[in-house]
Amino acid sequence: MAVKIRMTRIGRRHRPFFRINAIESREPRDGRMLEKLGHYDPIEKDPAKQIVLNSERIKYWLDKGAIPSETVSQILLRQGIQHKYAEERAKRQAKARAISSSKGRLFNKAQKIAAQKEVSAVEEKAKAEARAEEEKAKAEAEAKAKAGAEKKAKEEAETKTKVEKEKAEVEEKTEAEEKAETQEKTEAKTDADTKVEEEAETKSEEKAEAQADSETESEEETETEPEEKAKAEAEEKAKAEEKAEAETDTEAKVEEAETKSEEKAEGQANSETESEEETETEPEEKAEPEAKEKTDS
Q1: At what angle do helices 70-78 and 84-103 cross, to 10 degrees?
Q2: Residue 28 lies inside a defined structural domain of this protein
Q3: Rg of the chain's alpha carbons, rounded to an integer?
Q4: Does the pTM exceed 0.90?
């Protein structure tokens, strides 16, 4: 009957606990055990309490030909218990590893993990190199961009300085022109004021002269006024006399016209009387005057 030294899991979910037992090889994992040889608590932090073994009974069962499982064999070796099955397993593993290496295959999980680590290291190195190159290119691009920005800023500053200088020159020129224009306007205004003052003085002088002349003329007029007044009175008197004479002549003419009208009326009356008398005379006497009138005409 073959005996094996292996672990039996006990405990609850998420809290594993293993017992190291001597059990027949045909029994299941949790089957009937021959003897309890220790326990293994992976949750325990204290190494002295994590693995507890009965070394004397383990050696007894090893001497009897018990075969430890791979996990138990590693635990025994970790605790310093040597056995022939571990040496034989190491020889077999070395031989198999050599064969796998000669064929270019991976022998166990550790080698696979190591190979994966090497591949990961290579990939990480490549990524690191790519990242370094990318960072280098980025740094160069940033440096180039920075240099371009500095150059642009410098050009903008130069342009701004130039523009400000030109602006200042234009402002100075404009200010000078305005100042000159203001000065010209002031001079023109001064000249105009001077001219106006001169004209005013000239006008005032002319006015004074005219006033003096008018005063002189008024004085002369005041001197000649009595003579002219007397002359005017004489002329008015003469005109009044002429008017009185004209009125007298008119009255005489009116009287003469009235006298003539009276005489005419008397003559008409006489003629009417005579005509009445003549109508009473004979036709012969009437014919004589008519012939006489025709002869006179």
Answers
A1: 110
A2: yes
A3: 85
A4: no
